[in-house]
């Protein structure tokens, strides 16, 4: 039984059953993300302060510990003002009832246990699917925090599964552009092991300019044949030509700070799993690329 609640005009109630835990943990740590309306620690602290959460029927606080097996209930009142809607305008490049393609800006995570993510911004930017298995839109692959470019989204349960299968079977062709440092061969193929798994990327130098600081900068088109974490960044660093602005995989004397990472996911090509239409979708190069290579046309 609910022992106390400071607002009786309940609008929504959500329940979470805690699974078995290896150790006791504070609710303010465990509770982030267990309800779809509480995606951050600050949002969780707000609802705890307002006494909107109960654990086994008792009002929870920041001092509440979870051991496993508890029933956690979120009661949001009608006049709730959590202000938890993310306001982020995204460029939608393609959309139908099954899937969407958007442009991901730099400096934002695709998904994760934080408030500001692409995943949390999709509902406000995409049209709801009218199909029977419509679900909350979900990204079906990832781009790094600093990487810009094209991102594929599933809008129904069946399309999310189908698109994941296309990625696993390498039926989706991806291309990227990067600006790299140093004199490179015109084209090449890089094959290494990443995390004990084979990885393969092909590259082609499109244009080269002289740079006072870096001597040579190259606009390079990249075609990853596998999808390992940080693959393109690691591959280019491994051959001595790191991506401009890469502070993780770069030479200390050549790191460009404060300008971002010059890596852009340019295109996706695949056969639509439901309409059988062959799609080639692109996200144009950011202005910071074209400032260095103004004459290039992708």
Mean pLDDT: 89
Count of strand segments: 16
Find the structural class using helix and strand composition.
alpha+beta
Helix content: 10-25%
Morphology: globular
Distance between the termini: 64 Å
Relative strand content: 35-45%
Q: What is the radius of gyration? A: 23 Å
**Low-confidence runs (pLDDT<50, min 5 residues)?**
1-8
Question: Can you tell me about this structure?
Answer:
The chain is of the alpha+beta class. The chain has 6 helices and 16 strands. It has helices at about 25-30, 40-50, 120-125, 155-170, 230-240, 285-290, and strands at about 10-15, 25, 55, 60, 65, 70-75, 90-95, 100-105, 135-140, 150-155, 175-180, 185-195, 195-210, 215-225, 265-270, 280. Strands 7, 8, 9, 10, 11, 12, 13, 14, 15 and 16 form a 10-stranded mixed beta sheet that branches. A 4-stranded antiparallel beta sheet has the order 1-6-3-4, with no helix packed on it. The chain has a two-stranded antiparallel sheet with strand order 2-5. It is globular, with a radius of gyration of 23 Å.
């Amino acid at each position: 039984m609910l022992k106390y609640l400071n607002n009786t005009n309940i609008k929504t109630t959500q329940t979470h059953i805690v699974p078995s835990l290896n150790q006791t943990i504070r609710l303010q740590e465990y509770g982030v993300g267990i309800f779809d309306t509480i995606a951050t620690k600050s949002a969780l602290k707000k609802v705890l302060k307002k006494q909107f959460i109960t654990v086994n029927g008792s009002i929870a606080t920041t001092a509440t510990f979870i051991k496993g097996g508890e029933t956690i209930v979120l009661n949001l009142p009608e006049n709730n003002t959590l202000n938890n809607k993310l306001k982020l305008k995204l460029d939608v490049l393609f959309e139908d009832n099954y899937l969407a393609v958007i442009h991901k800006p730099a400096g934002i995570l695709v998904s994760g246990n934080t408030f500001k993510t692409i995943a949390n911004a999709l509902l406000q930017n995409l049209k709801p699917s009218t199909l029977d298995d419509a679900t909350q839109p979900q990204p079906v692959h990832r781009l790094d925090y600093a990487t810009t470019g094209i991102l594929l989204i599933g809008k129904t349960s069946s399309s999310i599964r189908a698109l994941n299968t296309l990625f696993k079977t390498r039926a989706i062709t991806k291309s990227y552009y990067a600006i790299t440092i140093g004199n490179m061969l015109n084209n090449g193929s890089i094959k290494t092991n990443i995390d004990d798994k084979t990885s393969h990327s092909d590259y082609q130098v499109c244009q080269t300019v002289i740079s006072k600081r870096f001597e040579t900068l190259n606009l390079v088109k990249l075609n990853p044949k596998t999808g390992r974490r940080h693959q393109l960044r690691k591959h280019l660093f491994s051959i001595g030509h790191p991506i401009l602005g890469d502070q993780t995989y770069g030479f200390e004397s050549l790191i460009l700070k404060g300008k971002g990472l010059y890596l852009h996911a340019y295109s996706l090509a695949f056969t639509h799993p439901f309409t059988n239409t062959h799609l080639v979708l692109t996200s144009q190069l950011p202005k910071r690329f074209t400032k260095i290579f103004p004459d290039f046309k992708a």
